[in-house]
């Protein structure tokens, strides 16, 4: 279901939290912080509130947000044990229909990445192909830890934007 910005602004905090809880993967605190910034004039302000909440968090809370994301094409995804939005995004990129060789390559790269950085490889997969996602691993494996931490947050910003764009309508016609 998609909501108008007026409907978002009219939600009580509990409803807002329930509707937007998984926009930031298993991290409802992001939605709670964004809720406190209402009213929003438009969807862009809503997106900004989520992004600001993420960036205002402590590094340990940001790390927990990053770690809440599943491995791309990982065991949890294959078993359907990821948030609905993640499942849909990964399926849209073809990650739910990998060959055995592709699955092994994702598993190998996910493992290398986790061993190097201590958190999962984050990639905003909407609109990407599995080949583009695989190609994204290699250059990022060469980053230093602080650079990659910031890149993970940038990717989460993109994920937040995609998910909020799916949930909240932009006004059309003369209301713009």
Automatic annotation (TrEMBL):
- EC category name: lyase
- An example Pfam family from this entry, by short name, is OHCU_decarbox
Keywords, ordered alphabetically: Decarboxylase, Lyase, Purine metabolism
Pathway named in the protein's UniProt entry: Purine metabolism; urate degradation; (S)-allantoin from urate: step 3/3
Query: Does the entry feature the keyword Lyase, yes or no?
Result: yes
Q: Which reaction does it catalyse?
A: 5-hydroxy-2-oxo-4-ureido-2,5-dihydro-1H-imidazole-5-carboxylate + H(+) = (S)-allantoin + CO2
Q: What GO molecular function terms would the record report?
A: 2-oxo-4-hydroxy-4-carboxy-5-ureidoimidazoline decarboxylase activity
EC numbers, comma separated: 4.1.1.97
Source taxon at top rank: Bacteria
Q: Where is the Oxo-4-hydroxy-4-carboxy-5-ureidoimidazoline decarboxylase domain?
A: 9-165
Q: Which GO terms describe its biological process?
A: allantoin metabolic process; purine nucleobase metabolic process; urate catabolic process
Q: What is this protein called?
A: 2-oxo-4-hydroxy-4-carboxy-5-ureidoimidazoline decarboxylase
